Amino acid sequence: MSQGNSGVSVTARQARACTVREALDRVGGKWSIGILIAASHGPIRFTELERQVAGISRRMLTLTLRNLERDGLLHRHVYPTVPPKVEYTATPMARELYESLVALTEWAERHRTAITAARAAYDREHAKVE
Amino acid sequence: MSQGNSGVSVTARQARACTVREALDRVGGKWSIGILIAASHGPIRFTELERQVAGISRRMLTLTLRNLERDGLLHRHVYPTVPPKVEYTATPMARELYESLVALTEWAERHRTAITAARAAYDREHAKVE
DNA sequence: CTGTATCCTTGAGGATACTG
DNA sequence: CAGTATCCTCAAGGATACAG
């Protein structure tokens, strides 16, 4: 964020905040990332997703899949067989997204302990007052 | 996400998903980014934040500030004057976070139109059925 | 000025029975 | 198998009056 922003207007800065939120909204759901990752190395079926993304409900799986498909992050292929067979695959756009998320992952790993410590300190500090 | 994952176990992949969510949780709130950006180029006061982060309610401003402070992303300095004066500043950790978010921003910009188009196509496709 | 307290609304998400 | 439909819960967030 380098102080160098001094010449940039307040509204321009908040516009950037908007762009960031735009990206986060596509990926901020509780299950989006898990699904995207599971679907990123080849086609994967509904039931298999249900197994790999631990804890997800059937409803949320369907909903999140629909949203990701709508945003063009997942491709859905239906085989007209009976019983039905449906495969989901991450699009190139989704793979790029994941690569962008790596920076964030590294940040989380780098500061994990610092954050835990900060929380502990904060809680300690504010428990005294009761 | 490069197919090269083939050798990586399913659980290892989902563990990565966890780390990503960890980072997103710190920044996923509706207002975190806006506040962080506003506080990232020097100390800023409560009222000034209320003005710059357009649309935020007083309650959410307070809550989000407390959370960010607790996680060690904001520093809060109180001047013992009357009326009170409080300044918030982004910590170095928060600035690093923003830099990690840049990749995400660029992704959003690069694919903005593609996503809009994908949505339009999807909606068109699914409106026909009614 | 910088909050806190209170009340309210909404939407995300969970559980699960049912269906083509 | 791959969903949809239904009902329910809870936490995020909004509005705003009040307080030190």
From TrEMBL, chains A, B:
The keyword DNA-binding applies. SUPFAM superfamilies: Winged helix' DNA-binding domain (SSF46785). Keywords: DNA-binding, Transcription, Transcription regulation. Residues 18-116 form the HTH hxlR-type domain. The keyword Transcription applies. It comes from the Bacteria. GO terms for molecular function: DNA binding. PANTHER family: HTH-TYPE TRANSCRIPTIONAL REGULATOR YODB (PTHR33204:SF37), TRANSCRIPTIONAL REGULATOR, MARR FAMILY (PTHR33204). This is DNA-binding transcriptional regulator, HxlR family.
